[in-house]
């Protein structure tokens, strides 16, 4: 093999977008057989996975997607490239039903049929559930979630779970087939799906990935990245207020909005069904009928895309957590801008104190608002002991609200004021899925006096929703009277003005 031939072979082995275009064929939605050129969604996912692999040595990912974005085709190509070049590698494909599994297996076989002979693996013994190669000694197995005990006793290096939100026996499979993938370098587990409501295995895997709880990275792929999702229009083409919001937030063309409008009509006007299958953001995918979030999804999405200028009083909100499942969340806010969100796991009291002292010295905030119920009490005491009583403000969220006619307690008031602040453009918050999730998480109701009462964390836990730590941290910056846009410290304790 000449140096040039070796260079070509190494590029085909290590560069998936190049390999896919040169060696693999796909059937398009129009029925054509063409070279596989990765689209925007596939390139985004590829970059995410390669970054994780470079950092950790392996891939563990949960992919929340809109329908027909090509994610399954991408994962299939990724694994075909690996098993074509590495000896002893086994890939396993599992979909929610047999027809879908057969379709994915068909993609593998099409890749193999059209693969150039110079890089094509040598066929081995194959059947309807296995596709093996003699050289390299590697291959595929397939199964469906409808069968129990699939893959038990098997060792595999690459696992592709398709439409996991619709899996039967999902919890059993998580303890079976997923356990067949060793926690070693160069192994991969990719779980991808459209959403299927809340409370199922995929929903919890997604939320835990957002929180950094399960070793999986979250990757979200919205519908509007697909260039095929648009329809021709005739001007003028007036938009509803919601459509105008979507156009502004996500940069949609009127042709994309026309396609969106058509698909909603196709679903008999069921907009929630459309959002589940074709979400614009991750939270939208899990919205279900009856949700009563205090802060709306589209309002948070707009704030995440907003631009504002920071001015006035500098706040740091700190929602401490110990060594349990919750996270210590820290965020900054100055006027109309919230920024620099931090989420920490398993920090003890003195570690959190040390972080806050460093922030005070380096960032010179006007106030640090610390939740001092429970775990945070010791943090507040130590900071006051260190002489920061003029900066560090202990917040007890269970006390009466300043506006006790409208809010059940201070916690509801903080969240209510934060919600009003988010709605009032211009405003800017970090574009982070975990923050988006937390801000939309708590439900609300009205108490017997007609005041807004925020859902308790215990009740959130009963419906499978974790503590909204990042949202709580930002809410703490609205915990006591102050000023709005052009604030100064002189009137910080004016009880009639909020910022």
Topology, please?
Blueprint: H1 3-14, H2 16-23, E1 25-27, E2 33-35, H3 40-56, E3 59-65, H4 71-85, E4 90-95, H5 98-114, E5 122-123, E6 130-135, E7 138-144, E8 158-162, H6 170-175, E9 188-193, H7 201-210, E10 217-221, H8 241-250, H9 254-266, H10 271-277, H11 282-285, H12 297-305, E11 314-319, E12 328-334, E13 337-344, H13 349-363, E14 367-371, H14 376-385, E15 392-395, H15 410-423, H16 433-440, E16 444-446, E17 452-454, H17 457-462, H18 469-476
Parallel strand pairs: 3-9, 3-10, 4-7, 4-8, 8-9, 11-14, 14-15
Antiparallel strand pairs: 1-2, 5-6, 6-7, 11-12, 12-13, 16-17
Helix pairs in contact: 1-2, 4-5, 8-12, 13-14, 15-18, 16-18
Overview in brief:
The protein is of the alpha/beta class. It has helices at residues 3-14, 16-23, 40-56, 71-85, 98-114, 170-175, 201-210, 241-250, 254-266, 271-277, 282-285, 297-305, 349-363, 376-385, 410-423, 433-440, 457-462, 469-476, and strands at 25-27, 33-35, 59-65, 90-95, 122-123, 130-135, 138-144, 158-162, 188-193, 217-221, 314-319, 328-334, 337-344, 367-371, 392-395, 444-446, 452-454.
